[in-house]
Design goal:
This protein has 23 helices and 20 strands. About 40% of the residues lie in helices and about 15% in strands. It has a five-stranded parallel β-sheet with strand order 1-5-4-2-3. A five-stranded parallel β-sheet has the order 6-10-9-7-8. Strands 11-15-14-12-13 form a five-stranded parallel β-sheet. By secondary structure, the protein is α/β, with parallel strands linked by helices. The two termini are about 35 Å apart. Helix 6 (about 110-120) crosses helix 23 (about 495-515), helix 9 packs across helix 12 and helix 12 (about 245-255) packs parallel to helix 16.
Length: about 525
């Protein structure tokens, strides 16, 4: 396997050529310490995640880890997928640090660092939780907009807030807040999406005063205040009545940020170019995307794209084309990506309907080389001695609800379940998708001679059928949730201390990127 040393990789980060740095560790391990520009590509899901991160297989790929040999295994997977320029960072993160370069903790670090830069650069105004509580109690003319996903909003939110994910804010604000005298407060769980949501409205030039809730729901709870739970209040779907004004505002911001508008024909030429990586991202709300989308595009809701860019974009220096139906959401997201340092960012001119055509059926997941079992069949045999269910979902989802008695495991680490599988007569795999189940089959076959089957539809189908779910926030233990970077409120102990540490970490990112020396936000950099 080819290797690259830390000094050489540092030079590659600074040059103008395309580069993907993929970290083979599980997300929780990655979050402990990693390179700023590294993208998590856990070995357990690499065959699923890598194709989306690397649309072009002959770009430079550097695999890394903490020196345990996982990077070499990931590199082998990359080559099996057709990647032709793959190497491993010799010594991993330890060698990077020994060379005098900076390591970062946390996940989605480039986006979160950018949020802190935005607050410093634009002077985003904010309000502390106790003051906002006073305003709510006093009945002040204001609206509280939660810029996270609908799922996060339902989990917990500020009283009186409504769910308006960040990519929807500038698009829908005219309908949501018709009076220029109404104060607008934007919140998230911590800092980034509060800042980015508030500043999106300010950059769009709405006449209202806009502030971010300082430290979001974490700040609210640290102030001794109680969040609402289970709420579903959200924006009215459909095209806003004020879309023309929203487009005017978004166009001004996009033009000032250097976003280029291209024709459908130019997008087609980009797609035919074998020398550049291209991401075509539809930034609309997920429900709109599911109703119809342009073939070849992926859904990356605008606010979440800016908040977690490395979820969708794995190659530095790639071309990025954003789509939406009216041009508002694509322009707002594109402007922020330009300011984040992505140079080749484009918006397609024209109505999405003209681009969409007939959306193809979703690709079929790989079929496991074993038989399947449906929910009714598993329910009938669940109490039969010798039946064991292996849940391959995320640890955080397993905690939230799993098939009673199911064992949780990470696909590439199933040997840890060997003793529990030794006496099994039937092993049923519950996976989020068929591809992951198919990948796990060979490993499970090496651990048990039991009849091996895959649950059709996984745990989601079990839940949809109204079957009982077991819930236990303590299993797996925090220390064992290596596949997921636990947020402070996901932890079973030390939550308040974790919240303080997280908020301090976010605030300090703006100073850490200066130490790193490779991060340049803003136009002209």
């Amino acid at each position: 396997m080819k290797t690259v040393d830390a000094k050489t990789l540092r030079g590659w980060i600074e040059d103008s050529q395309e580069l993907a740095i993929l970290d083979a560790r599980e997300e929780g391990e990655f979050g402990a310490s990693h390179l700023f520009w590294a993208i998590p590509c856990p070995l357990s899901r690499a065959e699923i995640r890598a194709p989306a991160l690397l649309p072009r297989r002959d770009t430079r790929v550097v695999c890394t880890d903490d020196g345990r040999g996982l990077a070499e295994k990931l590199a082998a997977v990359m080559e099996s997928l057709g990647c032709t320029h793959v190497c491993v960072l010799a010594g991993g993160t330890k060698a990077w640090e020994e060379a005098g370069f900076v390591l970062f903790s946390g996940v989605n670090v480039p986006s979160k660092a950018f949020g802190e830069w935005v607050e410093h650069h634009y002077g985003t105004e904010s309000v502390d939780a106790p003051v906002l509580k006073e305003w709510i109690d006093a009945g002040r003319d204001m609206v509280v907009l939660d810029s996270r996903t609908a799922e996060e909003f339902a989990r917990m939110t500020i009283p009186t807030a409504i769910s308006v994910p960040g990519g929807e804010l500038a698009y829908r604000i005219g309908d949501l807040v018709p009076s220029p005298d109404t104060l607008v407060v934007v919140n998230c769980a911590g800092r980034t999406r509060s800042i980015m949501g508030a500043e999106s409205l300010r950059r769009a030039g709405i006449p209202n005063k806009v502030v971010a809730l300082r430290n979001g729901t974490m700040g609210w709870e640290l102030a001794g205040l109680t969040c609402d739970r289970g709420r579903t209040d959200k924006f009215v779907p459909g095209t806003p009545q004020t879309v023309a004004e929203a487009l005017r505002r978004a166009t001004a911001f996009a033009e000032a940020s250097g976003v280029r508008v291209i024709s459908p024909a130019e997008l087609a030429r980009f797609e035919m170019d074998p020398h550049r990586t291209l991401y075509v991202l539809d930034v609309r709300d997920p429900a709109e995307y599911r109703a119809g989308y342009r073939p070849g595009s992926r859904n990356a809701p605008g606010g979440q794209l800016v908040q977690a860019t490395d979820t969708w974009i794995g190659v530095r220096g790639a071309r990025i084309v954003l789509l939406c139906d009216t041009g508002v959401r694509a322009r707002m997201s594109a402007a922020w990506l330009r300011l984040m340092g992505h140079h080749d960012v484009f918006v397609v001119d024209g109505n999405l309907a003209a681009l969409r055509g007939s959306a193809p059926a979703p690709a079929e997941a790989d079929k496991p080389a074993v038989g399947t079992i449906d929910v009714a069949g598993l329910a009938a045999s669940l109490d039969t001695p010798g039946t064991v269910v292996v849940d391959l979902g995320r640890s955080i989802d397993y905690r939230d609800g799993h098939i009673p008695g199911a064992l949780w495991g990470i696909r590439t680490r199933l040997s840890a379940l060997g003793a529990s599988l030794a006496a099994a007569k039937q092993v049923v795999v519950a996976a989020p998708d068929g591809t992951l189940a198919a990948l796990a089959v060979p490993e499970l076959r090496g651990l048990t001679g039991a009849d091996l089957r895959v649950l059709e539809g996984g745990t989601a189908a079990w839940k949809a059928a109204g079957q009982t779910l077991a819930k236990d926030r303590t299993v797996p233990a925090d220390k064992d949730c290596v596949d997921f970077y636990l947020r402070p409120y996901d932890r079973n102990s030390g939550v308040e201390e974790a919240m303080h540490a997280y908020l301090s970490w976010e605030i300090d990112l703006v100073h850490e990127i200066v130490r790193d020396g490779t991060v340049r936000f803003g136009i002209g950099h």
